[in-house]
Amino acid sequence: MKIKQFIAAFLVISSMNSVVAQDKKFIMHTVAFYNLENLFDIKDDANVNDEEYTPANGWTTEKYQQKLKNLERVISEIGTSEQQTNSPVVLGVCELENRGVLEDLIKMPKLAAKDYGIVHYDSPDGRGIDTGFLYQKKHFTPTSSANIPLIIENIDGSGKRVYTRDQLLVTGFLDGEEMHFIVNHWPSRSGGEKRSSPYREAAGALNKKIIDSLQKINPDAKVITMGDLNDGPYNKSVKKFLGAKAKKEEVQPGGTYNPMEEMSNKGIGSLAYRDAWDLFDQMIFTEPFIRKDYSSFRFWKAGVFNKPYLVQTTGQYKGYPLRNSPAEPGYSDHFAVYAYLIKEVK
């Protein structure tokens, strides 16, 4: 039975998010990515460029706690609906200062109840911001992880290295099925999109290299690469260097599928700049996720979590994501993105 035929019949029947379609039963899980936008604690770390987010510049304990409460609400609600009552079982995150802020985040009441674990490494990024990985221990068991450096030279010809975020690779078992997750925060567009493009193209090439290495070990490796790519699905870094395809029928064994490209073509975005929306936050899947049977976890559909309370309602940035600043703790200048994985239960 094809997925479209049973969507209308979805019915939640257990805390495991099982769903029923006529005579078939399915398990559904949400995986997601969220740019936390400057999740800094209030301490002035001499090794991190965090001065903007310290009490000297108005970032107080009270504001930090409000930021955590804001993120707690979002994360607990990403992807939830009448059909899906659980928050993401796996969540990639970026723009966080250190492991400590993630520990504070998962202790917030709505997240503490989900018993999230953390995978985190310090990054060489110039601002001191990292990527991270949260997982519900009930559903996901990590078996290995690595922070894979993106080593690139400055395009100014100086030969100096550009210190940017590592790509975080986590391997583990989701309800007994092996999967690999790559969490990304590719180099920014500082200096202009065209000038900085080689940095992100190098990031896409590294992503492809990681996926290829996993597929050499297991040609059927299930890999989800997710993150703030600072490029859209249509840019060379994603289309050429990573090689992601917009349509399932175009994806060959060993290839990758990017459901975000079709969403982007429809004008759906995860961030706004100069009154234009773009979809820099993406989730990309290797070919085994889009096979037609549901004997193991398959990709169902993706979305952008853009509830009204996450949108600025007044001022110059009306309609934009309700961003965070030292003066006013908000949510993030990015919306979260998510995808549903489903599997038939015999």
The protein's oligomeric status is single chain
Total number of beta strands: 18
Number of helices: 7
Over all CA atoms, what is the radius of gyration? 20 Å
Q: Measure the end-to-end span.
A: 14 Å
Q: Strand-and-helix sequence, N→C? A: HEEHEHHEEEEEEEHEHEEHEEEEE
Largest sheet: 7 strands, mixed
The helix content, as a percent range, equals 10-25%
Strand content: 25-35%
Task: Please characterize this protein's 3D structure.
The chain is of the alpha+beta class and 346 residues long. Helices cover 21% and strands 32% of the residues. It has helices spanning 3-6, 61-77, 99-106, 109-112, 193-217, 236-242, 260-265; strands at 18-21, 24-39, 90-96, 116-120, 130-136, 140-148, 152-153, 161-162, 167-174, 177-185, 223-228, 244-245, 256-257, 271-273, 276-278, 281-286, 298-305, 336-345. Strands 1, 2, 3, 4, 5, 17 and 18 form a seven-stranded mixed sheet that branches. A seven-stranded mixed sheet has the order 6-9-10-11-16-13-12. Helix 5 links the parallel strand 10 (177-185) and strand 11 (223-228). Helix 5 (193-217) runs parallel beside helix 6. The longest helix is centred in the middle third of the chain and has 25 residues, at 193-217. The protein starts with a helix and ends with a strand. The model is unreliable at 1-18 (pLDDT under 50).
